[in-house]
Design a protein that fits this description.
Layout (H helix, E strand, L loop, with lengths): L3 H19 L20 E5 L5 E8 L26 H13 L5 E5 L6 H18 L5 E5 L6 H10 L2 E7 L3 H7 L5 H18 L6 E7 L5 H15 L3 E6 L16 H16 L21 H8 L6 E2 L5 H4 L7 H11 L7 H7 L3 H4 L3 E3 L2 E2 L6
């Protein structure tokens, strides 16, 4: 006969597998096109801006939800098993994986059971147990629930490295099509503004983020315009784009999934907005208002602006160099540093600095010389 301790452990593991899998709808790492399958479905690879990868233990506190979003696996009217973790139970489970070095950080999210404050308090209690009882000092990404009290957001921010809020859609109209019970301005933006105020007073180590759903009727032009405004007005660390895929027994189960390449192009365009000084108006969109899936956004811009090229490698400044397809910020800085010593006059020398030479060759000159690509 199995002991009660082993039975409890088996139940906790079952909950972890289910609530960890359902946490997959919250993005925290690389675009799905680069996703890697892991043995444990609740361990996710997150990639920071510096390229450093960490394994995050990502889980829902509960999948019981009062909301009825049309696309969501946890929607109120969907018939499936509802489960919840007690704060002590979840804190203990995570710490086991942390001690085994299977996870280097925690991503804690939740559906909204009863109301936002009730569920946010459960999450906060889990975090307090980790910090105070287990003396855990590692990384925590804590999901703020729409309409949560400002006091709870403040408590969560004190104990977290990063907080985030899912805004879901770029406009009020788009939100009504997928989450008709939510108020874009009064609930989502109001909660975000509370987060911003708290973060300004005491900045978080890893800042604030949000997540937007892709492929539910919005255009990339709308999405990037909204994202550009979020970065400028609220100073978000980054924005995650979650491509829609249909879930059985939801109103949108027959709606087509968002292509992974479209999601990836949005991440690339977002990077240009956030790190390379591009503006939404500079992006190249098709007639539907979406980015070109067959060409990366930086290359599409360059092809659309032949008057900007070729760029002379020995004279161009940083901002001009990073606009060349195939030259990133790191490569551009290496070029500038090399130029302080001597000119770059041949492709062999340039290749030592910029590995992706074939990508940049038709957009540059070296000491006034053009090196056209030869057909191979």
């Amino acid at each position: 006969m199995r002991s009660s301790k082993s039975t409890d452990s088996a139940r906790a593991q079952t909950k972890l597998e289910i609530l960890g899998k359902q946490a997959s709808f919250d993005s925290c790492g690389c675009p799905r096109i680069f996703e890697t399958k892991w043995q444990d479905e609740f361990i996710y690879r997150a990639v920071g801006d510096g390229g450093r990868c960490v394994n995050l233990f990502k889980v829902l506190q509960t999948n019981a939800c009062k909301n009825n979003c049309l696309y969501c696996a946890n929607r109120r009217d969907r018939d499936f098993l509802r489960l919840s973790f007690g704060p002590g139970e979840l804190a203990g489970l995570f710490f086991q994986y942390y001690q085994k070095r299977k996870a280097q950080g925690l991503f804690l999210s939740s559906a909204i059971d009863r109301d936002a404050n009730f569920s946010q308090e459960k999450m906060l209690e889990t975090l307090k147990i980790l910090r105070q009882n287990y003396l855990y000092k590692g990384y925590v990404h804590f999901k703020i629930l729409p309409a949560a009290d400002k006091a709870l957001i403040y408590e969560a921010a004190k104990l977290s490295n990063r907080i985030s809020l899912n805004l879901e859609a770029p406009t009020e109209f788009c939100l009504r099509q997928i989450s008709p019970e939510k108020d874009f301005r009064k609930i989502l933006i109001s909660t975000l503004e509370n987060m911003v105020e708290i973060n300004k007073a005491a900045p978080l180590d890893s800042g604030m983020t949000t997540q937007l759903m892709v492929g539910l009727g919005e255009t990339d032009r709308e999405m990037l315009g909204f994202s550009e405004g979020l970065y400028k007005r609220y100073g978000l660390a980054r924005i995650y784009y979650s491509g829609f895929f249909p879930v059985k027994n939801t109103p949108l189960e027959s709606f087509p999934a968002c292509s992974r390449r479209r999601e990836y192009r949005l991440y690339q365009a977002d990077f240009l907005l956030r790190r390379y000084g591009f503006k939404k108006e500079e992006m190249v969109f098709n007639q539907r208002g979406n980015l070109l899936e067959e060409v990366d956004p930086k290359l599409a811009w360059a092809q659309n602006h032949p008057e900007k090229f070729p760029v002379e490698i020995n004279k161009a400044g940083l901002e001009q160099l990073i606009r060349v397809p195939g030259i990133g910020r790191i490569s551009a800085e290496k070029i500038l540093n090399f130029r302080r010593i001597k000119k770059i006059t041949d492709l062999t020398t340039l290749k030592k600095i910029v590995p992706s030479l074939r990508r940049i060759q038709k957009f540059i000159t070296l000491d006034g010389k053009f090196f056209p690509l030869r057909n191979s």
